[in-house]
Amino acid sequence: MKLLLKKIKCIAVFIMAVSFIGCSEDAIVLPKITAGFTYTLNEETGTVEFINISENARAYEWDFGNEISSKEKNPINTYGSGTFTVILKAMNAAGAVAYFEDVIVINIPLPLGLPMTFDDSNVVYKATVFDGTAFEVLENPAQGGTNNVASMVGAITNSGAIYEGVFFELGTAINLASEKTLKMNFWSDVTVDVLVKLEEGVLFSESSASHTGAGWEELQFTYTGTASYSKLVIFVAGPGTAVGTFYMDDVMQISLGDAPVILLNGEASISLTQGDTYAEQGATASDTEDGDISSAIAIAGDVVDGNTVGTYEVTYTVTDSEGNTTVATRSVTVSAPGACDTDATQSLSAADLNMTMGGAVSATEDGATFEIIDNPDFDNDENISCKVGKVTKLGNQNWDNIQLDFTSKFDFNANTGLKIKVWSSRANTEVRIKLEEIGNVNNNVESFLTTSVTNGWEELTFPFAGADSDKFNKIVIFFDLNALNSDTYYFDDLQLYGTGSGGGGGTGGGGNSIGGGDGCATTTACPAAPAGELLNNGDFEECDCDWQLISNGGTASISTTINNGGSKSAQIQSATGANPALKQERFAVGSIQPNTTYTVTFDIKASGAFGEGGVFKAFIFSEGVNGGNVNATMHALTEDTTSISTTSWESKSYTFTTPGNANQVEGGISFLAELVNSTAYVNIDNVVVKVQ
Fold first, then answer.
1. If pLDDT is split at 50, 70 and 90, which confidence band does 353 have?
2. Same domain, 272 and 305
3. Read out DSSP for 441-465?
4. Which of 190, 543, 590, 607 is deepest in the core (most CB within 10 A)?
5. For the domain that residue 470 is a member of, what is the CATH number?
6. pLDDT > 50? residue 522
7. Alpha carbon distances (Å) from 546 to 382, 507, 529, 532
8. Is the entire prediction scored with pTM above 0.70?
9. Model confidence over 181-208: pLDDT tens digits?
């Protein structure tokens, strides 16, 4: 009982103490609240990430200025173009409030498209130049004619090269479904033709116009068809050699009157004099140039079912700006188009392969699609077949390909090799044929060539050696291996050719062995490698040894005028988009040891600067046994040499170490050197490979 009274007494004293303190006149001071934020802006997407820097706050309310709000501490908001006032309200637990606001200006770049005026600060007027042309956007330096205003224009400066020009990758495609004419203001002080080509659609379409050289003039370019195109290519005097600066402005798509109404059977074409608009059977076509019939364009190819081939009197009506009409007639010739050739019966046997697309073809699709379609380009001398194979890369992997399996293996003792017709819209397309054994992908051989025709058919031949016989029953076709694109390619008439034992077989890229040319006498045997060395003929003095010269869009040869000792060297002449190479394959078989370090040395000299994107590369490959199941091991000696001395020979030295297992070097080693995407050439001499 005494203990309880003692506790009650203590509690009473505590309450009195608290009461006394509560009567103090000292006020409680709460921490001051402040609101604030910073932000980061993605100018491409309009996405803003807000960073809250408020102090002593526990709750937030955001007004982003675009009718969107948030209560997050660090929100993210995406805007369209415009000016927005952002307000942040910050609060603490006691109900105190603070505000902060800032103005955000968003200018999301607009996609490049038509009209192209060069005046919109929110559009990036980026052009890609090729073959010597330069391009820039500047203020109109020569007001007058059809462009008598102060504005920005595109300046094209030609160096005088054939086919030089510029192109624009369009974010908004040009659709020819209804408006089939482009017009632009163009300045020139010399008479010149201008070619405007539309690409990256269904094949391509092009049109040209002539400029009188009288300053700013309006040029018009009219196209057929109804496709869409996302690349606009401009050639000034192409093909030609006009040197100087020209200006372009106000590129836009227009319609020169309503599309013609001609009743055809859908399989015929019409032939009209350029400059006519017309109508048939009561449908009228208005001339947009105030009754000047010569300035309007009749567009061939817009047809519906109706009349058959023949000649017809077409009545057309022209309406001027004042509403006056003129009725006239014109004789229209409707003629059947050129006919394609019915595809011959095909053979899908490895014994007499002749894949004409005249029947079904079964292909395995590995990153690419395959189908048989109507030949989109049969009006030529190279391939007038009605049906062709279409390959579309999906662009998801570097090795997009299609594969063709056969029930038996190819005989290159009875046949020289394979040939194929190909069509590509890309210049210098690499076409690679790889032969494999079904179920044993490591048993393979391949060869590749580079196309020389753009937007047209050509036939490529791939020789294989007699030693490649009875090994392979699968064909793998690659277009532009390692080019991660989604382009479309066509091929036809894949077949065997020749009567046997065709040449350098499967060693790459249109290559040919040295011998019988370039000042080289053909002999019957190669001398042994010099003492202590592993590679034959590293000084290129003996021309019948195992070097391969691989063109790949450029040239590779033996020079008899440039050398670093002796009388010869190897010369690789590259070009834009090309990668010619020099190769000696599978040498020193039986001498190469696993887990061993070797040195590679050679002398090299260049003719000039490699240019933008130009690079010299050199590799060694440790080889498994030929025809076995061990992949080669690549040793990169150099992949990024962008310049070489042009005044004196440079000596290069590299080391590599072979892999650790004996079966990885049973096939010896291979040496490869290439010059990629350069306008220069290099000479190589005194190649030596030896143990370190």
1. very high
2. yes
3. EEEEEEEEEE---SSEEEEEEEE--
4. 543
5. 2.60.120.260
6. no
7. 35, 11, 12, 19
8. no
9. 899 999 999 999 999 999 988 778 888 8
pLDDT digits (tens, 9 = 90+) for 129-157: 998 899 999 999 999 988 988 899 999 99
> Percent helix, strand, coil in the chain (nearest 5)?
5, 45, 50
Enter the tokens of residue 33.
Answer: 């609240």
Q: Which of 421, 419, 266 is nearest to 341 (CA)?
A: 421
Burial class (CB in 10 A: 0-12, 13-18, 19+), 525: exposed
**pLDDT at residue number 519:** 43
Q: What is the mean pLDDT of residues 378-385?
A: 83
Identify the bridge partners of residue 547 per DSSP, sorted by sequence position.
584
My answer on whether 490 and 555 are in the same domain is no
Query: SS3 for 28?
Result: coil
Q: Looking at the structure, do residues 526 and 634 belong to the same domain, yes or no?
A: yes
Between CA 74 and CA 97 the distance in angstroms is: 18
28 within domain boundaries = no
CA-based nearest residue to 373, from 359, 391, 387: 387
Number of domains present in the structure of the chain: 5
Q: Is residue 266 part of a domain?
A: yes
Terminus-to-terminus CA distance in the chain, angstroms?
102
Residue 576 shares a structural domain with residue 685 = yes
Domain boundary among 53, 74, 106: 106
Give the CATH number, domain containing residue 95.
2.60.40.10
Whether 399 and 520 map to the same domain: the answer is no
Could you give the dihedral angle defined by the CA atoms of residues 580, 584, 585 and 586, in that order, rounded to the nearest 10 degrees?
-160
> In the chain, what is the greatest distance between 2 CA atoms, to the nearest angstrom?
132
Q: Which domain holds residue 47?
A: 37-106
In a domain, 212, yes or no: yes
